[in-house]
Every structure is written in structure tokens, then in C-alpha cells.
UniProtKB/TrEMBL annotation:
Keywords: Membrane, Transmembrane, Transmembrane helix
UniProt keyword Membrane, yes or no: yes
Segments traversing the membrane: 171-192, 212-233, 316-336, 342-360, 429-449, 469-487, 499-523, 535-556
Protein name from the UniProt record: Anoctamin
């Protein structure tokens, strides 16, 4: 026998939701009469199922069939008569009929407002009134700029971080400029104090200067505020994008509207300019997520499928907080007059980098999971709660691709190549700009101190060139890029045991420490020696920086061209 889920559970389960109801105590619930639509499959799966039979079953629902927010004990018929007729039309035609009466979208920026609250809670964890109010967040539309495909099995906060960085990194940089600029204005207006001192010995200036952490603190608060406020600042964000977001584009309480939305996904996809996959580990294990991939490529052969693995932005977030933490430790050490034992200070300040390297290795393992999931994709392993939904999705795929095997070959081959050619797992250059802004803000502590102390302009320019740009931007990004490459190359433990795994991270950290220290001592001597030496060092570090970005991109484009030729 085939059963169907209660209407209030359908959309969340269909979209791959995490069902907290499975943890609830199972209560004695009277049998519910459930009307389920099933497909009478032919012997050969090469042909799509076109006949629809209606079965009336009496089943005793388990906790899996009952919403965690409100347990339904009344008799439900699913699908409704209107939906049954619509489904007959969908299955017997092209599956891409657009239901213009219920097509609704939401702007990406609006979905991320209030800390992305629409993303952070699964509809199954909401009350009935909260689910009903979700519909009011969307507005009527005639198309979608972006169809956001994701699974509710993944915590919503990860999607919020990913989308905030994707859409708001420019605003975050603007926030950084505002934060550092405001700190400088307040310092030179004598509003913010400079309570610490630093001994300076340069080619044209020697003495004690006063400093504080204000530029660094302003940069940190600025970039964080810019990121959080980016959904509200529209001029710098790309034009308003109308998105399909399941919880607001499909009604969560009205049974008929819900059914029309769920089984009209093919139509929604056919009027979408881009399918953006917010990939996480469980994504390809959810049948409805697979359905969206299959439907979009069939409906829009030339449409844009964009793969956005969540681990990329999570890794950048780890790095950003880690870099600021290290910078604060370093300057606190200088404020405590520990610069006489500089090697010890540097080692202590950079110790958190060891944790960052290990976290990056663990985070990058998701990339290998992504590659493995695409290469070894098996449609039969994709999970679906109801037999009706499974038959619906399978029959759709057979209709579009000829057979389930043909679709699996497509995912393992052409689709995998298409997504990898995009460079989906590469870190965008804008993210590197955010990371380098962390260290550049820290260098402004010294530059501000020199200006306030009345140091000669050549000394200030030398410090700005050799230290701020030469070391804290160009050399830092070069070392960071190399370290990130190696953490990916050696993400998988080479030897068994947790201790050996940590040892592998420690060796990568030591390489980072050696390269970072070499650059620091080179920059320190250069900008203190002369402006010419500082300029030469800056040119050298800039060349290293360019090579670290140009070579990987060149290799990537060569591979892309070869894949395109094949």
C-alpha cells in the first residue's frame, strides 16, 4: 500500500526538510483515510507513466505523517479533487504547465533581512499561524530571476552566510572603508585616545609613537556591519532579483494551493532564468532536489545552473574571524611591550592559525563529498517520504530523459562537467579582498601612529608601501593562497589516527609560519632601510601575489577549454 503525507507536512518534506516530528513521542492516532494518487508503471521504465489511478487507503499514520507543529487527527484526502485533475494534466502533457494564478516570488535581499529569519527555521518547526504568514512575504510574479534550490536538512544559518557573502561582499567592503575612515577621523579629532607606545627606528625617523587599535577595530565592525546591513542597502547590490523560495512561494497551510505549488514546480522552473543550487552534503540525497535539477535542464536547455557550495563561504567566515583574532593578539602583545621577544610574540599570536588550518581541512572535505556525489550519483538512493511523490518524480525523469539510467549518466557526466567547469568551488576574488582588508586595517595602526607623531612623508610612504601593501596585502594573500591550496591538497588524512591528523595540520601551519615570518622580516628591513628598498620589496611581493592568482586561473581555463573541446 502507498500512503501520503498530511498536507501541512508536504512542502517541507518535498523540499528536503528536517523533520523534528520524528523525535516526538508517538501517540495513538486513529486511522486516517488517505487518498493517494499512484502511477501504473509499465514494464519498461523507458516509457513514462501516463495512466493515473486513484486509490483510497485506510492507514494508521505514524509520527512521520504528523506535523510537529500541529498534529492533524481529522480525515484528510490527498490530493484534492482539483489537484488530482491538475496532476492528470501535468503527467499526461509536458510537466511544465505554468500555474499563473499562484506564481509568487521574493527578492533575495528581502529574504535575508532580519538576519535571514525566513531561512533559519524549517516550516515544520513553526506554528500554523507562522506558516500561514509566510505566504504574505511573497508577491505575484511572472518569472523568476533565480530559483533557489536547497534542502532543509542543512541548517539555515549556513545558507544565510553563503547568500550574504555572495550578494553583499561589496557592501561589506564599503562598511570596512567607513569603519576605518571613521576611526581615523575620530583619532585626528582627538576624540579617541592613543594610550599605547611603540618604538620606531626608520631611515629618517627615530622615536616613540603613540598608537591604539581603533583602525583595526573600526575595520572589523565595519565589514561585519556592512555584511549584515547589505540586504537593506540596495544601490550597491545587483538589481532586484525575484527569487523562488519554497517557504514563501508555496502556500504552507492551504491544502489546495500547497498541492498546486508542489506539483507545479516544473512550471516554476520553466520560467526561471537561473537555478542556483545551495549545495550541502545531503543535497543529492533528496529526491525533490534531484527533481529540480532534472526539470530545469529539461525545461531550459540553455538556462544557467549555478552551483554554490556552502562550504566556500563558511571557510571565508572562519578565516575572517580568525585573521582579526590573530591581529588583535599580535597588537595586544606589542601594547604589553613584548616586541623584544618578537619571535615568541609572533608564534603565540599565530597559534590560532593552527586551528584555522585544521578547520579549513575539515571544511574542504565537503568539496570531495560534492565531487563524489556527482560522480557516483544513484537516483534510486535519493530519499522521498511518499511512494506517490517518488513515482511522480521518477515518471517525470523518464519522460524527460528516456530512462532513469540515462538521467544518472547525465548527472555523472555532462552535468558534473558543466558545474565543475564553472569553477564552483573556487574562492571569488572579492572574498580575498575582504580577507586582506583585515590585515590592512591592522597595518593602519602603525601608519596612523607615524602621521600623528609627525614622521617625514618618505617614512610614511615607505611604511604604507612596504608594510601595508607589500606585506599585509600582497605577501599575506600569496601565503594565504598557497596555504589554502595545500589544505585542499592534504585535506584527507595521510595516516590513520586523530593525532596524526592533527600533526598533518601542524605541518601545514608550520609552513605558513615560516613563509609569513620570512615576508615579515623582509618587509620590516625594507621599509626601515629606505623608500627605494620598500618599493623593491613591494614589487617583488606583488609579483608573487599575481603569480599565485594567475597560474591557478590559467590552469583552470586550460582545463575548461579542453573539457569544452571534448
Amino acid at each position: 500500500p502507498k500512503t501520503a503525507l498530511s498536507a501541512k507536512d508536504c512542502v517541507a518534506c518535498a523540499m528536503g526538510s528536517n523533520t523534528s516530528c520524528c523525535n516526538e513521542e508517538k501517540a495513538d492516532v486513529p486511522p486516517v483515510e488517505v487518498t493517494a494518487v499512484t502511477h501504473e508503471m509499465t514494464e519498461s521504465e523507458e516509457e513514462p507513466a501516463t495512466d493515473i489511478a486513484l486509490e483510497v487507503l485506510t492507514v494508521k499514520p505514524t509520527a512521520e505523517h504528523v506535523s510537529s507543529a500541529s498534529a492533524e487527527r481529522s480525515e484528510l484526502k490527498f490530493p484534492s479533487e482539483a489537484s488530482r485533475l491538475r496532476l492528470e494534466s501535468i503527467v499526461n502533457t509536458d510537466h511544465f504547465e505554468v500555474d499563473q494564478e499562484i506564481i509568487r516570488g521574493i527578492s533575495l535581499s528581502k529574504s535575508l533581512q532580519w538576519g535571514g529569519r525566513l531561512w533559519r527555521r524549517s516550516p515544520l518547526d513553526m506554528t500554523e499561524q507562522e506558516r500561514q504568514n509566510l505566504w504574505n512575504h511573497s508577491t505575484p510574479a511572472d518569472h523568476f530571476d533565480v530559483f533557489l534550490s536547497h534542502t532543509w536538512l542543512t541548517p539555515g544559518r549556513r545558507k544565510v552566510v553563503s547568500l550574504l557573502l555572495q550578494s553583499g561582499w561589496k557592501v561589506a567592503l564599503l562598511g570596512w572603508f567607513c569603519g576605518v575612515g571613521l576611526a581615523e577621523i575620530l583619532i585626528f579629532s582627538e576624540i579617541l585616545p592613543l594610550p599605547f607606545t611603540l618604538e620606531v627606528d626608520m631611515f629618517a625617523f627615530k622615536g616613540t609613537v603613540s598608537f591604539a587599535f581603533w583602525p583595526m577595530l573600526g575595520g572589523f565592525l565595519g565589514v561585519l556591519s556592512g555584511l549584515i546591513l547589505s540586504p537593506y542597502i540596495r544601490p550597491l547590490v545587483p538589481r532586484k532579483q525575484i527569487c523562488f523560495l519554497d517557504v514563501v512561494s508555496i502556500h504552507q497551510t492551504d491544502q489546495e494551493l500547497m498541492e498546486r505549488g508542489i506539483y507545479g514546480l516544473g512550471g516554476f522552473l520553466s520560467v526561471s532564468k537561473e537555478l542556483r543550487v545551495l549545495w550541502s552534503s545531503p543535497y543529492l540525497s533528496r529526491l525533490w532536489c534531484v527533481f529540480e535539477l532534472a526539470a530545469y535542464r529539461s525545461a531550459c536547455p540553455e538556462g544557467k545552473i549555478t552551483l554554490k557550495p556552502l562550504f566556500v563561504e563558511m571557510g571565508i567566515l572562519y578565516l575572517m574571524f580568525g585573521i582579526y583574532f590573530v591581529a588583535f593578539l599580535f597588537w595586544i602583545g606589542i601594547a604589553l611591550r613584548l616586541e623584544q621577544e618578537f619571535l615568541v610574540l609572533e608564534m603565540l599570536a599565530l597559534t590560532p592559525v593552527l586551528v584555522m588550518v585544521h578547520l579549513l581541512r575539515e571544511n574542504i572535505k565537503e568539496k570531495f563529498k560534492l565531487l563524489s556525489d556527482l560522480k557516483d550519483f544513484d537516483l534510486e538512493q535519493a530519499f522521498c517520504r511518499t511512494e506517490f511523490d517518488r513515482n511522480f518524480v521518477h515518471s517525470s525523469i523518464v519522460k524527460w530523459y528516456g530512462s532513469k539510467e540515462a538521467f544518472m549518466r547525465y548527472v555523472r557526466g555532462p552535468l558534473r562537467e558543466e558545474l565543475l567547469i564553472q569553477g564552483a568551488t573556487h574562492v571569488p576574488f572579492g572574498y580575498y579582498m575582504i580577507l586582506s582588508s583585515c590585515t590592512f586595517a591592522a597595518s593602519m595602526n602603525t601608519v596612523t601612529a607615524l602621521v600623528k607623531a609627525g614622521a617625514p612623508i618618505p617614512c610614511i610612504v615607505s611604511e604604507l608601501l612596504g608594510s601595508s601593501f607589500g606585506f599585509y596585502v600582497f605577501w599575506f594573500l600569496f601565503v594565504l593562497k598557497l596555504t589554502m591550496f595545500l589544505t585542499e591538497r592534504f585535506a584527507v588524512p595521510r595516516w590513520p589516527g586523530k593525532l596524526m591528523n592533527y600533526g598533518q595540520s601542524f605541518m601545514l601551519f608550520m609552513l605558513f609560519f615560516v613563509l609569513y615570518s620570512m615576508g615579515f622580516y623582509a618587509a620590516d628591513n625594507a621599509y626601515k632601510w629606505s623608500l627605494e628598498a620598500s618599493t623593491m620589496w613591494t614589487i617583488f611581493s606583488f609579483a608573487c601575489f599575481l603569480m599565485s592568482f594567475i597560474i591557478p586561473r590559467f590552469v583552470f581555463h586550460v582545463k575548461r577549454a579542453m573539457a569544452g573541446a571534448l
